[in-house]
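Pair request: fold both.
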Amino acid sequence: MTTALHDPDDTALATTLGHAGLIPFVLLAALLWLVNADLLPWVAMALAAYAALIASFLGGIHWGIGWMAGHVAAARGDTPQHRQRNHFLWGFVPSLLAWPGLLMPAFAGLAWLGFVLVICYLADRTLYARAGLQAWLTLRFRLSAIAALCCFIGAGAL
């Protein structure tokens, strides 16, 4: 795998889509402070569900990295790196960590999911760098920081 981001248009698209993915976080966290008390459980569940979905997506990225590492190694005639296994092993962890956040009371669940998003970023700092994808870490930091902050702000509204 290379350290370069291949196509500037693809990089711009990924950045734009990543930022667009923050809209539900920001909107739902703000709504928790603005809506009638009758709507709080619904909005809190929407935010928690979206956070858990994103955590699962972050794990799924590692399955893609693992598969690509295997294909790149095979194309070169190499055996897949042992680090490929690390991506597969980590790939299912975010979903397992996020799931309890949907089962907890809303305040605790949102706080837990905020921590899960932070944990995902911390794992990615190591795993992305080992895969030569450290160029994505600045974007990952921004997206994760805002998403986690929205979960914490949402929890504070409850």
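--- second member of the pair ---
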Amino acid sequence: MAKHFSLQHIAEQLGLEAINTTDAVYTGVDTLANATSGYISFLTNVKYKSQLNTTNAGAVIVHPDYKDQVNGPALLSDNPHATFARVAQLFYVPVPLASGIAASAVVPESVSLGQNVNIGHNVVLGENVVLGDGVTIGANTVIQNNVSIGSNSIIHPNVTLYREVQLGNNVVVHSQTVIGADGFGFANDKGTWIPVPQIGSVIVGDDTSIGASSSIDRGALDDTVIGKNCIIDNQVQIGHNCKIGDHSCICGFVGIAGSTTIGKYVVIAGGVGINGHITICDKVQVTGFSMVVQDITEPGVYSSGQPALTNREWRKVSVRGRQLPSLFDRVKQLEKQLEKQNN
């Protein structure tokens, strides 16, 4: 069922100032370009500031610096993007993945179920699984023995949680993700690979979201640990024994090798590769397609990826790159000649 709110009601709910209010009610959010009179829009990028004059939105969310450029109703916020997210949550009506416990679900007697648990069709639960209050498990998900899932967590269809994985409260795991598979642990003996049993597990903190088709490996001896309020995108690989700090963001196609420790409030952009057995401190940002091969000990922005060039420019850069060794040798020779002349 659609939700309807006045702007004043939203302002009171979120502790914000509303200006130019009317008796109108709103049913959702949309962009400045597409919103109509029943929707609330937002300005987070000054690139779109001119659209404040042309938008058909019934109300807008803006920083107080732009209040004089708004002709109609508005919410004033020091962080319009965060406010937009909270307003969108007010209007959002989730589609239930399951209702009650499906007859086709496999739920052993040893499973502990909290109140208002929903389990979809063909779900298979192992022995001694613990599901907190309000947990929802989507269809075809497999949860192995001794897994614990905190209250109000949502596991989407076709997820696999291996044995002894622990998820906190309000965790979201999207489809096709695998948590707790064996880490890539092998020892080499004269060319023969010998598997090392992976006896650790995976612990995921409260309020963390994990995207689709991602893999988080269990620890070899100690546990792999994902902190609270982390956001992990689709198709991310996190190796065994990694530690990810609270409030960190890992974007799509990131690969993190085993035994890497990442601090709090770290942002890893798409396509980044991170070597194993290194440490990244708090409040680091790594830009897209970078390769991190050593410890990062100071907060800041780090890059190594090559921005896109025209094909003609790239060919020139490639040629220059191949010439670097000979140029280096020539410079060294010139330095030696200058040194002799000066002596």
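Observation on the second member. The mean pLDDT is 95.
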